[in-house]
Every structure is written in structure tokens, then in C-alpha cells.
Amino acid sequence: MSRLHRPKAGLWIRVWVSILYPLDGLFFKIRWQHLERVPAPSQGGVLIAINHVSQVDTVLTARLVWQSGRVPRFMIKAGIFDWPIVGYMMKGAGQIPVYRGTADAAHSLRDAVSALERGEAVVIYPEGTTTKDPANWPMQSKTGIARLVLLAPDIPVVPVGQWGAHRMGGPSLRRLGRRRTAQASIGEPLDLSRFRGKEPTPALLREITDEIMSAVREQVAELRGEPAPDTFFVPKRVYVDKGRR
Fold first, then answer.
1. Half-sphere exposure (CA, 13 Å, Cβ side) for 121?
2. What is the dihedral of CA 211, 148, 240, 235, to 10 degrees?
3. In the sheet that 46-50 helps form, which strands lie side by side, from edge to edge?
4. Count of beta carbons in the 10 Å neighbourhood of residue 106
5. Does residue 231 belong to any structural domain of this protein?
6. Global pTM value
7. Which of 59, 201, 223, 233 could cross-link to 133 by cystine, CB 3.0-4.6 Å?
8. How far is CA 10 from the centre of its chain?
9. 210 CB-side CA count, 13 A
10. pLDDT tens digits, residue range 22-68?
């Protein structure tokens, strides 16, 4: 499948594409829906919110965003940037480290806003980690995405639901060798500009976050062919990353 648009991409992005693109096709049968709903680069910045079902689904999301014609700038937990080689490549590709639960979390938001103002496509997993919902529905998310919306209220938010990546792997090599179907459905961009200038109270942050994740959940329900639950599963564990060095 060709890209819908062809914006300029730097060296490290193209290195990642050359590595991940064929791996995605090797391990998964790719099924994307509504790629055209991602605004074109000429329309400026866009915030892409997606559910997190597996540790490997990031490589699929990268391909999804790339094929929509945008260069993905992921908000990724900061610890990955400390990995040898991979961390260096992440920095070179302009990805954004997220310091979950620390005083440095504000730096991540500022970096993301700067990228959006430059017209970039910023990708965020609002849940902050893979879902802990027993049925793999999107769980209750952190409110970082709502804070980002309040800092950049005119940026469209594109809800994306994905399904299938969690079925890869398992205890047997035979299962690992089977190609699994990976699906993603892109919803219509959300206009959240009505929240411009609002005070970031806990209630408002939860309202914005749940509105976005409800739209993501609707896309997951479409892929699964079943109704979504009425409420979000609430995880008990709080995830914290190391701050900036």
C-alpha cells in the first residue's frame, strides 16, 4: 500500500522505515481502515490517539501513520531512550521521551506542543502502557492527553482503534511463526477547540480524556464487531519513569 502523501522525512526516520516496514509485513497481515481521515501535512499538526494492546503494536502504528502520509513523532516512555543503539536512533528520529509520573512530565508536553506547532503528527498512547482490561478494551487513561489538548486546543485529535497485535507470540515457536491479522480503524478528527482557555481542573481533564478514549473505543468496537463496555477498566498500578538526567 502506497503512502497517501509524501512529506520530507529525515535520515533516521527512513532507517526505521527500512527496518520496520518489511518486519510488519512478515509477521502480520495488515488491515487499515479510513487512512484518509488523517489530515494531510499541508493542514498542519495533528495529534493521533491510539489504544495500546501489545508491546509490539508500536511498530504497526508507525507503519499506519507512515502510510497515511505523515511522519510519526511518538511520545514514548523515557527509559527506551537509554537503550544502546535504539535510544540513539529514537533521538535521531525526533521521537519524544515521556517521563511518566515525574516532575519532568511537563517537558514532554512542551516538546509535543512544539512538534505540533511545527506541523508534525504526534502519536500518543493515552493509557500510558498496554491495557490491563481483562478483555483488552481500552482502559481508563491518564490525563496527559487532556493537558496537551489544553495547550494546543486548535490541533485536531484523531482517534485510532487497533486490534490483533496482542495475538502475536505465545509459548510456542510455531505460534510465533504464524502471521496474525493486525487491524486499525481511524475515526473522524475531533475538534476540541471548545476547551480553549479552560482551567485544567481534575474534572475537566477527565472529561476531555474520556471523550477522546470513548472515540478510540468506538473504533475498537467496530474492528471487534461487538458493543464496547459502558465504562473504562481502572488499573491499580501507577507507572513512574526516571526523570531527566
1. 27
2. 0
3. 28-33, 180-186, 157-163, 46-50, 121-124, 72-77, 96-98
4. 11
5. no
6. 0.88
7. 233
8. 20
9. 12
10. 888 888 999 999 999 999 999 999 999 999 999 899 999 999 999 99
- Number of domains within the chain: 1
Question: Does some domain include residue 244?
Answer: no
Q: Rounded to an integer, what distance in angstroms lies between the CA atom of residue 161 and that of residue 92? A: 28
- Decide: helix, strand or coil at residue 144: helix
Output the CA angle 136-3-42, nearest 5 degrees. 100
Give domain status of residue 4, yes or no.
no
Residues facing 31 on adjacent strands: 183
CATH code for the domain of 64: 3.40.1130.10
Residue bearing cell 485544567: 200
CB-based burial label for 222 (10 Å; 0-12, 13-18, 19+): middle
What does the mean pLDDT of the chain come to?
A: 89
Describe the chain by its helix, strand, coil percentages, rounded to 5.
40, 15, 45
Residue 55 cell numbers, joined: 508491546
Domain presence at residue 153? yes
Residues of the domain holding 175: 11-222
**Rounded-to-integer distance, Cα 7 and Cα 196, Å:** 29
Q: Give the position of cell 522525512.
A: 9
SS3 for 30?
Answer: strand
DSSP state string for 16-35: HHHHHHHHHHHHEEEEEE-G
Is residue 188 within 8 Å of 76, Cβ to Cβ? no
Strand, helix or coil for residue 203: helix
